[in-house]
Hints:
The complex is a heterodimer of chains A (588) and B (126).
Chain A: H1 2-12, H2 34-110, H3 113-126, E1 130-137, E2 142-146, H4 160-167, E3 170-176, E4 184-192, E5 198-205, H5 207-215, E6 223-228, E7 260-264, E8 273-281, E9 286-296, H6 297-300, H7 302-391, H8 398-427, E10 433-436, H9 438-447, H10 450-455, E11 459-463, E12 471-474, H11 475-492, E13 498-507, E14 510-517, H12 524-527, H13 547-557, E15 561-567, E16 571-579, H14 584-587
Parallel strand pairs in A: 11-13
Antiparallel strand pairs in A: 1-2, 1-5, 3-4, 4-5, 6-9, 7-8, 8-9, 10-12, 13-14, 14-16, 15-16
Helix pairs in contact in A: 2-3, 2-7, 7-8, 9-11, 11-13
Chain B: E1 2-9, H1 13-25, E2 30-33, H2 36-44, E3 48-56, H3 64-74, E4 80-84, H4 89-98, E5 102-105, H5 110-125
Parallel strand pairs in B: 1-2, 1-3, 3-4, 4-5
Helix pairs in contact in B: 2-3, 3-4
Amino acid sequence: MIQQVKGTLSQVWPKFHRHRHNAHLHPFHTFNDYWRLWTISICILVGTALIPLFIVTLIHYQLIQKSVDNELELRAERLTATTKSAVSFFMQERLDALMFTVREAGYRRLSSHRQLNEILMNMKLGFGGLLDLSVIDADGDQIAYAGPYNLEGKNYANQPWFSESLKKRYFVSEVFTGYREVPHIIIAVSSKKEDGTGFILRATLDTERLIQKLASYKTGGHADIFLVNREGVLQTPSVRFGPIFSKTGLDVASVDQHVIVEFNATPDGRADILFGRTAISTNLTDTPFVLVVQKEKQRMMHIWLKLRRSINWTVGVCVFLIVVVVTMASTLMANKLYELDNAKAATMLQMEQSQQLASIGQLAAGVAHEINNPLAVISETAGYIKDLFEYTDGPADRDEVVDNIDEILAAVSRCGTITKQLLGFVRRFDIRIRKIYLEKMVDDVLSFHKKEAEYKRIAVTVSMPDDLPPMETDSGKLQQVLVNLINNAFQAVDEDGCLTIRASMPEKEQVEVVIEDTGCGIPEENLERIQEPFFSTKQEKSGTGLGLSITYSLVKKLGGKIFVQSTEGVGTSFTIRLPMKLNQRGAA
Amino acid sequence: MKHIDVLIIDDEEKFAAMLSKRIMLRGFSSDICHDGGQALEWVADPDNRATLILLDLQLPDMYGTNVLTEIKKIDPAVPVIILTGHGTEKDREECSRLGAYRFVHKPIQIDDIVAVLGEIGEAKSQ
């Protein structure tokens, strides 16, 4: 079980965190920074997965918010309308009752104190909501009064409501304290006596009952329902603005009978108060009241808030899962890449080594030929001297024997020169930075092709500036590059062809070597592929397809650049540009 | 009419001279050519006949296999031993296809050549 978990974890754990730089393998790696690769992969995948998720969530949020707002607006509108009709009806009912009483009873009966009391009693029994009744004549004198306050004999000529009531037939006042010094509303109906002078039947509305009626519409305690006058002064208590007669600062001067609902900003700037307004009026007359309904949005939003919380949780869990899965997938991918890249680099390194061996082998064949010829001379000359003893009576001519022995010695020294040359050549294949004379190295490489050049009558031209300073570079790698390119040139050139090797110093501290042949050339479609490993056009199996690929990587290791130009049937020229001094770090 | 036993075709003058002398010490006749052109001229001459030809692959003017092809055109019956410093496997196959008698790497044993001459003599007498 623990083993299984460990195995799974190792798959999704970045393996490259223990990656050590290896100077031999490094040039063959396709990727250098696996951490960066890993991070970029995670970022791209997480971004691709999360951005649409966030966009959809945001759209969802806005849609829900909008529909919740609409719903809230609708509810506030309904509440305002319902409350308005209830308050209007309350006023209307009482105005109707007063009008009925005036018409039915007439001034004579109303001016009788006893009868007025009787009417008030009946009204209270019938529908209530009235505190007192009084009859006032055209001069403002109170003629009769029925009710709890002793206000008989008062004159109302100076009261603003009095003149207003006389002008209009029906009148509803604002809340005011008046003589009794408690807030009240009066409603009044004016009529004519038999002698043609006017009088007023006035009633005091039970404001408590009005307040209770308003309060009965406050559902769930979120709403603040109150009446204000046109100046915005409270006519009933408000949760938000305080007791009666407080100033609200609301601008309601232009409010008409239509119900208007809108979002308003709270003093702290948040648009989360629903504000419904409408003017209260009856069939008979307008009233000075404006009904205001205020709902705090936040308090009505708990369903939406709950929904939002669950959306947030779901999105959060999704984000977490996506990040985990993406991280695991990216790690898996980066691990695989890392492993493959490592394996590739190791293979390439091995290939480079075997290619090096192969090119040494190729040289060895040339060397064998060079050595076998003098060996054959030695063998035949020595055999001849022996023959002189076996087939004749011994050498007749002493000088002939000495001459033949000299021939043997000359052939032996020829062999010695060649083996020395080969040894020196092979020794240079080890990886060390040393002083190199480019011309000498080119000559050495060419010397192994001397016979081939002779047989195929290839004109080999080497031109180097006389003042070319020695290079300080990795001799093995440079030699391998030259061997590969010169071998290729020899293979490409037919009889009577030309091979030109030129060196120059286009810049200080830089040498340019051009190896040009008049061989078969490389078709254009292959030109871009020649540096690919295992790309070969050699029909017979002599080519591994690694020569040029390794040459390219070697030049890179030497801190240089390689270019190729080729025309099919005309020839190929390889140009390598190398620094005169190899920076050790650059070589790594 | 010049009838010799061994024709040596090799550009290595010293080697050819020594080999020729040793063959003659053993009682056979021999002649030397130093390049392909010369050799083909020798073979094409109706007065000349060789029992055995020793042919080097690397000649200054032409490649040994081409010389072999030409010799076989003129005289298909003559046995040709290929003598080479470093002939490849490919060369060996090519020469065998072209009808070479043997393919031998330098240096060679003179006794082998004598033995071959004996074989050829026996084959003719049978």
